[in-house]
């Protein structure tokens, strides 16, 4: 059974993970998230509700 011989498959598996780890993280880190809006400047008026409790 050739699939039980780890010789060539181990090298292919390790080399593919090495390539993925070298190429994918820089591509993901190129995307910069949007800066969140400062919520302290945007305040809405606080209106209290009068609940009609029985």
Automatic annotation (TrEMBL):
Membrane spanning stretches: 12-31
GO MF entry, a single one: proton transmembrane transporter activity
Gene Ontology BP, a term: proton motive force-driven ATP synthesis
Subcellular location: Mitochondrion membrane
Any one cellular-component term (Gene Ontology): mitochondrial membrane
Keywords from the UniProt entry: ATP synthesis, CF(0), Hydrogen ion transport, Ion transport, Membrane, Mitochondrion, Transmembrane, Transmembrane helix, Transport
Recorded family membership: Belongs to the ATPase protein 8 family.
Identification of the protein by name: ATP synthase complex subunit 8
Organism: Cynoglossus sinicus
Name of the gene this protein is made from: ATP8
């Amino acid at each position: 059974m050739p699939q039980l011989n780890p010789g060539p498959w181990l090298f292919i598996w390790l080399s593919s993970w090495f390539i993925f780890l070298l190429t994918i993280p820089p591509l993901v880190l190129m995307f910069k998230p949007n800066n969140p809006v400062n919520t302290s400047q945007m305040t809405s008026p606080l209106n209290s509700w009068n609940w009609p409790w029985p």
